[in-house]
Design a protein that fits this description.
By secondary structure, the protein is of the alpha+beta class. It has one domain: Helix Hairpins (Orthogonal Bundle), CATH 1.10.287.3240. It contains two helices and two strands, in the order H-E-E-H.
Length: 196
């Protein structure tokens, strides 16, 4: 704690600081709660996406050996782009997935095996889920970082700044009361001397 001056001006400054801290603290609480709520929501969405990915993998397992055939499936699906938007949550800009532009190229049904249709459908879903998962992880990272900062600020105000300010106000008030008591004592002594 920094050294405080024991003056009336410092007392006024400390009281103003205390009012400011008490005014900002509820706002920080609300921001912290919003961020916690959003992080939990995103965790739920991430769990859902991971579950969908696992279901797709389980669906592919029975016929995964077909992928060893010499068929260029990767050339039949092309990712043209990912369209993102920005959303502001509690003062934090996070990316939001708007659209995934995938193109399934046409192919000759007589050359390619029957399972290619289903494989392209599953690969398209896997690509979409992978992009969605990446975006959700980035959202979670940004919001978690801001949540950590908001929590630190709440703790700073609650556990450091407000107690320090209250302590300073108490010290200054005691000192000023002692000075006032001493001044009254000196005034009585001076009055008695003048009366003699």
């Amino acid at each position: 704690m920094k050294k405080v001056k024991l003056t009336k001006n410092e007392l006024r400054k400390q009281k103003d600081d205390l009012k400011r801290y008490n005014r900002y603290l509820p706002t920080l609480y609300i921001k912290k709660q919003q961020l916690q709520k959003e992080v939990e929501r995103i965790r739920g969405e991430l769990a859902h996406v991971k579950q969908s990915q696992n279901r797709l993998l389980e669906e592919v397992l029975p016929w995964v050996s077909l992928f060893s055939e010499d068929v260029d499936i990767a050339g039949l699906i092309q990712l043209h782009g990912v369209k993102m938007m920005e959303e502001n949550i509690a003062g934090v800009d996070i990316p939001v997935l708007d659209q995934v532009d995938l193109e399934n190229k046409r192919y000759d049904l007589f050359i390619y095996p029957l399972w290619v249709d289903r494989a392209m459908e599953i690969l398209s879903k896997m690509i979409h889920l992978k992009i969605q998962r990446t975006v959700l992880e980035e959202q979670k990272r940004r919001l978690s970082q801001e949540l950590r900062i908001a929590s630190q600020r709440v703790n700073l105000f609650e556990k450091v700044k407000i107690p320090e300010t209250l302590n300073a106000i108490r010290k200054i008030s005691i000192h000023l009361a002692d000075l006032q008591t001493a001044a009254v004592g000196w005034a009585r002594i001076a009055k008695k001397k003048i009366a003699r």
